[in-house]
């Protein structure tokens, strides 16, 4: 690390306060609303003990708290867990069990595509499931639940791949629903069972047996604490970096996400002690409602502070599941394209590894895509693939790859002190470089390169059926303007102030273009979309017959118009800074 000031600040990061919070949270279940508020108050007290000023917001957010579930079939009753937002069905829903095997690659799928779950069989499943209970492999996730509903199933049983049953959520609604979202609330009971129970239920399904799903849920509006620490920078700008993560968890949730809460606490402590060295403000927020509200806490913040975020937030950094045992690799590092050079430099310097990046899923607390915030991390460190294979672990979405994720087994042994300290320093250095840099370390030419690759892929998929050349030309024009901007910044003809404003404003245009379908300040469904999602109609354009081809081409034209207009607006914004 060449920067002496950075090195001095990074070396101040210690484990004392962080590990104490991990140990405390390891004895505190944090999924029922009252328990969550107790934990929020504890975070507030710990911040105060370090002299860090904190504001505690107390919004009312809509939550779905799972209490109990079971599956009965063939005279036996089996243990189950309902995901949050499952239909409350204490008297049970009864129907014939129908087992449909899913593809192994689909176990964690966030994409609402029947073929992703079931292969070619997914195209023809609809009528065969009406009035029946779908039994399949994987997790009871939103995309699978939405498909089961569309097919007329009266219930869904997800067979988890191991001995444990994982909690989760099954709604596509992002955060607290509004009048337009509420219709997507799941209307069927959903449960998860372990592999042993699943094997028994598959046999019952093959024998044509009926089954009954029972779920006990609690839904409603709950006041929840949202602690937010503010570390002021030294310039006169209101611009800030947002670091955030959830503090509610399933059961005691050590790896998901007590370690993240501890990471943010330690960063708040260190930054407060060095606030005179920061150029920009840093805001650190702890969210409730992640597990039982489908990111309701971060969504409330995005809604309530939308204008401030729009005008002044330079980037958001999500802190989820750092510091877990065996998580020594960075080959699944979540990052938007424009932030890759920054993240790469940090991980190489702190961990001595070159990260392998993954595109952010529509998951975690990425509640800011529709505002247009450049983003990185959600999951950072994870266990190497060979270690995971050696242990016989299946893929999960947190806890550094430990299959204790979203179970009662996510306890203190899931955390690792050495890994936690390294991850704290990775997060800290990332935030420092965003907060200290004279010119924001955002490389939009990384995104134009991604756009060019995406359009090439989409054009190859649709062939002569539709022309994406105008969109590709728009990408080329934007890239050329960005090159001139970079030259101007390096040569001093473009001021830091003008460069920063342009780079921030580009996020408001390009992030929604690459990650959303709905208008700004609304929230997309919790279903992961491909790059340039408005244009993904090109991927299956050739599959349309005469009955639907004209409609698909109309959609493609409208979508291309939106992409072209956004690229033109982005180019004009860059040119205005030159």
TrEMBL record:
Gene3D superfamilies: 3.50.30.30, Zn peptidases. Keywords: Carboxypeptidase, Endoplasmic reticulum, Glycoprotein, Golgi apparatus, Hydrolase, Lysosome, Metal-binding, Metalloprotease, Protease, Secreted, Signal, Zinc, Zymogen. Transmembrane segments: none annotated. Pfam families: Peptidase_M28. SUPFAM superfamilies: PA domain (SSF52025), Zn-dependent exopeptidases (SSF53187). It is found in: Endoplasmic reticulum; Golgi apparatus; Lysosome; Secreted. One of its GO terms (molecular function) is metallodipeptidase activity. GO terms for cellular component: extracellular region; lysosome. The keyword Phosphoprotein does not apply. GO terms for biological process: proteolysis. Homodimer. The monomeric form is inactive while the homodimer is active. PANTHER family: CARBOXYPEPTIDASE Q (PTHR12053:SF3), PROTEASE FAMILY M28 PLASMA GLUTAMATE CARBOXYPEPTIDASE-RELATED (PTHR12053). This is Carboxypeptidase Q. It comes from Marivita cryptomonadis.
